[in-house]
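hey m, so remember when u said the tokens were messed up on ur end? i reran from scratch. heres the input so u can diff it against urs
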Amino acid sequence: MSTVKKELVPSVTKMMAWTRKIFKQGIRRPGYSADYWAENWVKEQFEKMGLQDVTLDPVPVKKWEAFDAKLEIWTVNEPNEVLDIPCFPIPFTKPKNNLETELCMISDNISMLGKIAVSELELFKFPVKVIKGSYVVDRYYDPEDAFDNMEQIFPFDFKMRALFDRPSKNGIAGFIGILSGYPWETDEYYVPYDAVEREIPGVYVSRDNGKKILKLIKKDTLRARLSYRAKISEVISHNITGTLRGMSDEWIVIGTHHDSPWNSAVEDASGMVLVLAQAKYWSQVPKKQRPFNLMFLMNCAHMAGGRGAIAFVEKYKEFLKNVVVGIHLEHVARDVKSENGKIIPLAAPTVRWWFVSRIIPLEEIVEDAIIKENLERSILLPPDGFPPGRDSPPTDGSFYHLEGIPFISFLTAPPYLFDPADTLDKIHQESYEPLTQAVIRIINSLKDHTADELRSLVLSKKERKKIRRNIK
């Protein structure tokens, strides 16, 4: 039942053409013109493919815009030696005009009242081989043993939220985050994207510009002048849905988000393309060969607190009771390295994460599809606990888990995910067709399963730990 009609799968040439078209429109943050273009374009594609009930559902979201960022620093003993430091406003922080005050490294040991706090941010790194035999993961596909010599760099510093929560507690006047842990020179880091309005201004500076600040702060008392304009406005974005009827009263939902931090090829033009490829494939398959009704979803506002996913659940709560599995697809990413402060794409894909509900038959179906399509560097992860402390996956697919719906959420986490360096050369285009075929195999393999049955097979963490099977 996992058969794929390969002649119906969109070619990599077609999928890259879709990717380029999306990418060239510009920055697709919620409320930006390129994101409105994306909504209408997706609707048009769904309609051309013959999907039914194609709908744009309005969702109120926050639009963030920032302008004219300027950071100047000097020592108190040399006030005329002013350094102009390029910077990028931290999303949803409070703008300020000419905030002038002392700089200090963030600390619990000194008063930071009225000062601009400085902190170095280190992207989280870990050796991938630790997953082998770990208590969290016992299913992975690494036929070349690539994990044994890999270090994965996540696009997050997991102490970030704690840093932003400090100002209300100790009177910090502003914040400068030095992107010391970034493997290349950049200050354009679009994190956090939770749409929570912060009480103080804050900016990022690049690794090398941060070194200048750190050098001066060790020599003398340092002062700074920080300015930028910003605007937060309430706008309407849209979730887009379309359906195809199949041979069951139950449903599979296949989705992703259509907004992005920048032009963003990987995040998430590539996810959009994966969903379009599924819609194109199944639209060519006769109804009697579709094992389920299918809904295709492109939700909005991932970059504004996941508001689109939340709105989708609110509208479709009753419908979701009839969903056998929710499938969320993101990030067809190429691995990279850095040399001399520059980012260099590599031949291999970034490590692939497959978050899967603790349902053994579902894990086996996903595992089988991965192996059949030779999707190396794949890891099957539980729905919670990774990254540490989370109760759901770090994707818009998390709403399936939180609503008790069996789910599969595919993504990768390359270090450039929230940076303008996420350009077309970062797409691992060799993966487009096999990933599409793997999802088709998964859907076909679910034919004899029902929503109630899979829900009844969900295991607790403790129950799942008792069942272990390493795959190679």
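this time it looks ok to me. The first strand starts at residue 52 and ends at 75. if urs says something different then somethings off w ur setup not the seq
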